[in-house]
Amino acid sequence: MCLASVSLIVLIALLPSASVFDVEGAETSDGFLYSVNAGGYVTITGYTGTAESLTIPDMIDGNQVRYIENSAFINNAVLKNVTIPNTVTIIFDSAFENCTSLTSVVIGNGVVSISNFAFEGCTSLTSVVMGNGVVSIGSYAFEGCASLTEIFIPNKVSTLGTGVFIDCTNLRTIKFMGNAPANVGQYWVTNTHTLLSVYYFDDATGFTDPWNGVSPEQQQLFIRELYSGTFKITGYNGPGGDVIIPDEIGGVPVKYIDDNAFQNNFDITGITIPDSVISIGISTFASCSSLTNASIGDGVTSI
After folding, report:
1. Is the Cα torsion angle 247, 251, 256, 259 positive or negative in sign?
2. Where are the alpha helices (DSSP H) in the chain?
3. Which of 39, 68, 91, 195 is the most exposed place for a label (fewest CB within 10 A)?
4. Cα(281)–Cα(220) distance, rounded to whole angstroms?
5. Coil, helix or strand for 282?
6. Which domains are delineated in the chain?
7. Cα–Cα distance between 48 and 69 in angstroms, integer?
8. From CA 210, how far away is CA 37, in angstroms rounded?
9. Residue 292 class from Cβ within 10 Å (0-12 exposed, 13-18 middle, 19+ buried)?
């Protein structure tokens, strides 16, 4: 055996794993097309399956799923529900463009960027739950989502691209979970519902009247009233998912949750009640059909 061949064998033996090699054009048994980059991260590049409800995996062959490629699911007329895992950081341009049957999407907390045209033309989309890691929503990301009526903007979002909600003709409510984004593109709410309302919560800063062509209104995230020198939670204006009730608001302790405070909220999946709360009222969480997890603080003495 020549010296060159021995050196090559030694070099291969020293490599940490096969994942350091670029892999292109691979496919999982359930239809995900993907590539693996030199760092060992997976990009979903397409989908050949026929599932209506789809959870994108967080790992493939031991490698973390990190990206959803340009046009990966474009024009898929079968998809109705998509869940994107926390491992994904970027949803690239047109990833779900013209998925006309798509009704709901849950975007994991790891996603930082929703790129241009990502969900453009998803005409059946009614529910978008964005994780709290999103910083940028690109131009025309939700253009033409004509069935969308309400959307919550996560508290870290600093950029809304041009035309991000253009032609969302039934969009009536936009709620900002944090401060006003510093960068907002033109036409961001052009041709939305004529009764569009924009809200921000409690002590958020940066909103003026007018603000980028709209007149935002302040709301309480947790609707409350003073009761014996403490706060009683009487309602909730926020998004679904996991809800954490604070132990104090503005220095005033939260001790009571009123009757029916969260009743008929179909979007809440988890609730955390702090130790400061001593009483939970009648039918507080009645008909919260998606609620699967509840953590009740040690201070609760009456339910």
Report:
1. negative
2. 3-14
3. 195
4. 20
5. coil
6. 19-218 (3.80.10.10), 222-296 (3.80.10.10)
7. 15
8. 46
9. exposed
Match 């892999």 to its residue by tokens: 23
- The residues that bridge with 223 in the sheet, in sequence order, are 235
Is residue 213 classed as helix, strand or coil in its secondary structure? coil
Q: What is the pLDDT along the chain (303 residues), one digit of tens a residue?
A: 443 443 333 333 333 333 334 667 799 999 999 999 999 999 999 999 999 999 999 999 999 999 999 999 999 999 999 999 999 999 999 999 999 999 999 999 999 999 999 999 999 999 999 999 999 999 999 999 999 999 999 999 999 999 999 999 999 999 999 999 999 999 999 999 999 999 999 999 999 999 999 999 999 999 999 999 999 999 999 998 899 999 999 999 999 999 999 999 999 999 999 999 999 999 999 999 999 999 999 999 999
177 with 155: CB under 8 angstroms? Answer: yes
Amino acid in the structure at residue 236? Y
pTM of the predicted model, to two decimals?
Answer: 0.89
- State the DSSP string of 70-96: TTTTTT-SS--EEEE-TT--EE-TTTT
Residue 75 pairs in a beta bridge with none
> Distance between CA 48 and CA 208 in Å, rounded?
47
Nearest to 110 by CA among 135, 140, 82: 135
Q: Which residue has the tokens 């020293």?
A: 14
Q: What is the DSSP letter of 19?
A: G
Peptide bond into 181 cis (omega under 30): no
CB 108 within 8 A of CB 84: yes
Number of other CB atoms surrounding residue 136 within 10 Å: 18
Indicate the residue type of 279: S
Task: Look at phi and psi of residue 279 and say left if phi exceeds 0, alpha if psi is from -120 to 50, else beta.
Answer: beta
Q: DSSP characters for 253-271?
A: EEEEE-TTTTTT--SEEEE
